[in-house]
Please model this.
Amino acid sequence: MPILEPGTARIRVKDLRLRTFIGINEDEIINKQDVLINLTILYPAQEAVRDNDIDHALNYRTITKAIIQHVEGNRFALLERLTQEVLDLVMSHAEVSYAEVEVDKPHALRFAESVSITLAGRR
Model:
């Protein structure tokens, strides 16, 4: 993860729990499962800090609502694809300079709490 430059804000969304169709096995194709999504987003926040105005801030609520709608409304065979599509949604906001997305699939493996994939993008 990049070092924060002066004036750069780091937004973290932790453990966004959603339900979606994820996997390739028959049971996974017909039953929704939990996924946990963690986001790290960097953006230049000088104007938001200076003006104390939402119009100059990156609206993480808007981003999160789009992620919820996309994840819960689609089907995914692979965690890699789901993670990339969430990253693409975050990076579609021009203000974002860096984003990292981690998607956990709880209990995907016997004896493991979860399996996760992490992808990052930079502009």
About this structure: The chain has a mean pLDDT of 94. The radius of gyration is 16 Å.
